[in-house]
Amino acid sequence: MLRNGAAGGGAAAQRPVRVWCDGCYDMVHYGHSNQLRQARAMGDYLIVGVHTDEEIAKHKGPPVFTQEERYKMVQAIKWVDEIAPGAPYVTTLETLDKYNCDFCVHGDDITLTIDGKDTYEEVKTAGRYRECKRTQGVSTTDLVGRMLLMTKAHHSNIDEDLDYRKHTDNFGKGPKGHSPWTGVSQFLQTSQKIIQFASGKEPQPGDTIIYVAGAFDLFHIGHVDFLEKVHQLAERPYIIAGLHFDQEVNRYKGKNYPIMNIHERTLSVLACRYVSEVVIGAPYAVTADLLDHFKVSRCVWTYTKMLGFDEPKRRGIFQLVDSGSNLTTDLIVQRIIKNRLEFEARNQKKEAKELAVLEAMKRLEEEKH
């Protein structure tokens, strides 16, 4: 996907189309990854600007993750070619020109400044804005709500209960109703979505096939650090991640874990640049059949308390790796609960701003007719 540019004597030279995306990328989930996947498909090189903690706190409220954590999370998404740390909250032509980007891409929702203005107004006016489809059924708002509610209704194969329905009706809802962008909806997995996220690459002769397994819930920087270390174990690693079913995760983790169901966790892990393949619903105990089927030469984990690795240990292919990170899904949930009131207030403020814009857009449409 190249574009024409003037070069010596008027001859048309081809140069790559450079695409810009920006955002908070707080609690990075497969919705963010899907936006970046779509943006990357519109050009040849994707640069992602990530806002600072200070900017997010000013316009939106407290971020769950620090800027350093968010920078690393975005860099780990396989469609991202480069990140721009400390990108301004309002996207300007100056920023696009600074990074030599042709246009910027955002989802079909709306992003507003503290005073309710569209952060993409300038680039839209200049014709350097493209839109992609927002991923239905996931938002940071919904994930935060699941943590606070502590029910299991978001798990696969569990009927929705009244508490969860009430949560989806009310979480983050302001006094004037729902915004279609901040409100909660149900994610529906499709085979097409898995195909879009999957690498589609088979292991090649000379590849070292490494198997890791776990919940990989709320895919976070601790997971990224671990997978990066695993990736460094071989010259040509082919990492297969086994994901346990929701009921299995709940059996060993308890409470309302996992926060993300098996379908959501699958996409989150597939989006990571270090992972080549995912086993959906892997057995808790790593079996001889699994190791033989995938021709696994190493089986790696980071927590000694994790059981189920007897067979890899018996074969002498089990290895423990220190990820260097102490961040766990439990710690993330604790961060959220600690700041519960701030997050609920943030969601309500955000939704109120979005509803005001919707009303203004509606009035404009009515005036036209």
UniProtKB/TrEMBL annotation:
GO terms for biological process: phosphatidylethanolamine biosynthetic process. Transmembrane segments: none annotated. Residues 20-144, 212-300 form the Cytidyltransferase-like domain. One of its GO terms (molecular function) is ethanolamine-phosphate cytidylyltransferase activity. Pathway: Lipid metabolism; Phospholipid metabolism; phosphatidylethanolamine biosynthesis; phosphatidylethanolamine from ethanolamine: step 2/3. Residues 338-367 form a coiled coil. Keywords: Coiled coil, Lipid biosynthesis, Lipid metabolism, Nucleotidyltransferase, Phospholipid biosynthesis, Phospholipid metabolism, Transferase. NCBIfam families: cyt_tran_rel (TIGR00125). Belongs to the cytidylyltransferase family. This is ethanolamine-phosphate cytidylyltransferase. The gene is SIRT7.
